[in-house]
Amino acid sequence: MKYLKPGSISLSAAIWLIFSPTDVLALSQPQPLDLSGHWVGFASIAVFAVAYVLVVLEEALQLRKSIPMMLAAALIWVGIALVYKQQGLSSVAEAAIRHDVLDYGELLLFIIVSIVYINAMEERRVFDCLRVWLVNRKLSYRQLFWVTGLLAFFISSVSNNMTTAMLMCAVIMAVGKDNPKFVGVACVNTVVAANAGGAFCPFGDITTLMVWQKGFIQFWTFFKLFIPSVVNFLIPAALMHFAIPKAEPAQIQARIVIRRGAKRIVLLFLLTILTAVVFQNSLQLPAAVGMMAGLAYLQLFGYFLHITHDDEMDADLGSIHYQKPPATEDDAELRFDVFHHLERLEWDTLLFFYGVVLCVGGMNFIGFLHRLSGFLYGELGATSANTLVGISSALIDNIPVMFAILSMHPEMSEGQWLLVTLAAGVGGSLLAIGSAAGVALMGQARGIYTFTTHLKWTPAIALGYFCSLGTHFLINSTMF
What we know:
23 helices
C-alpha cells in the first residue's frame, strides 16, 4: 500500500475531500481483515466460550459475571490490535472499537437514568405502598394470581423485568406463605408476565431498547407487539389457573406511609420517557440525551425536596417486609439524594453488558458474525432464524444474542425485526434460567420456586411462545 507524503494533496483536493459525501469517503477507507480463519479468530472463540462458562457458573464460583466478560473483551481486542498493527491498519481497529464503545455508552446512560428513577420510587416507598395495597385487598389465591400477573405485565413495560418480578414475588410470598404450591405456580406466572410485558415497549427490556436505539423500528411501532405479548402471557396463565387452589389466604392487615414527593417522581419518570421519545423520533437526537435531561428533572426536584425539608423523620407506620430504619439513623439520610440512587446501581450487570458488547463487537469485526448471518438469514431464512433466537435465549442471555443480531445487520422487513424482538424478549421464559426475572425469583423464593417447578410448565409456556409468534404474523402480516 502506497502512502502519500505530507503536502502532496493540493488545496482544491483537500477542500473536495472535506465536503465530499460521507459514503464517498467511506469507500476510501481500508476494509476490515477477515480473521475468522486466523489464530486470533480461534483464540477469540475460546476466550469468549471460557468467559461465558464462568458467567453461567457465577453462583457456584461466587465470581461476579462482569469479571470474566470484561477480561475476555480486553483479550479479544488485544489480539485484533496486534494483527492490525502488523498490517499498518491500527486506525481501522481503533475506529471499530470506538464505535462499539459509543454504542455501549448510549445504552449505559439510558439504562442508568431508568434505574435511578426506579430506585428513587422504591426509596419513596411507591412499590411498598403498591404491595401493601394488594395484600389488604383480601383477594383469593386465584384472584391474586391474576392480579400479580397483570401488574407484572404492565409494570415491566416501563421497568426492568427483574425489579417487577421481585415486587410481585414479595406480594405472593406475603399472602401465600402457607401455600407453597400457590407460590411456586404464581412465581412461574410472574416470570412469564414480566418477560412478555417488556417485549412491546422500548423501555421494558434491554434487547427492545437496543433495537429502538439502532433505528430499525420506530418507537410507536413496537406497540404492534402488544397483542402478541398478551397472548404470550395469557395462554400459560390460563392453563396454570386450574393449578391454583380455590381457597382464600389468611387475611393480613398492614399500613405504610408514602414519602413526600413520590407521586411527583412517578410523573417525572413519565415526562422523562416522553422527552427521550421526542429527542429520538422528532429531533433525531440520541434517546440517551433525552434521558439525561430527565435525570436533570429529578435532580432539580431533589433540590426542591432538600430546601423544603422540614427536618422531621418520615413516619413509618409499618409494613410487611419493610425494615424500619434504625433509631440511630441521621435525619439527613432520609432526605432525597439522586447520587445516593446512582450508588445503588447494579454495576456488575452494567459492566457485564460492557463486556458483552465489546466481545460480540470483536467477533463481528473478526468476521464470524458475517458467516453466521449468511447461514441463519441466508440458508435458514429470517423467520426460522428469528424463532431460533427466541429459543436459544432460554439458555443464553438474550443481550449477547440480540447484540449479535444487530451487529450482523441482516436485511429484514420491519415485521421480521419485530419478530426477533418479540422472540428474544419472551423466549427466556421457557426456562427459569432464561431471564434475570427467573434467576432472581429462584433466590427470593428459594426452595419453592425452583428450576424444576418452572420446567413443569415449560410445555404451556412454549405453547404461548409459538402462539404469540403466530399472532404477530396474523395481525402484522402487512409488515412482512
